[in-house]
Amino acid sequence: MAEFPDSDTDVLTESKAKLEKPKLFKVILHNDDFTTMEFVVFVLQYVFNLGDAEAFTIMLKVHNEGIGIAGVYPFEIANMKAEKAMNLAKAREFPLLCSVEEE
Fold first, then answer.
1. Within a domain: 87
2. Could you give the percent of the chain with pLDDT greater than 70?
């Protein structure tokens, strides 16, 4: 026969676990002399789900300043999006570089 805890003596204590927000990471696009501006806009729209105007603005920032932030995500998602963007570029023979940095 199974034993049940004596409900008169057992006490349930409430433990308050502190949940921290996950750290976020920036996906950074780096300028190069070969990847076309049109392709960078395409990547920003297709991989990072940005609208036309925002994608164009970020592409200009990459072109003029050398880098631009495509988005900010939890670590796994940031890595996945950076790799997806670079794989698309490699398939089209562009040397587009994406890096991931903690925000």
1. yes
2. 85
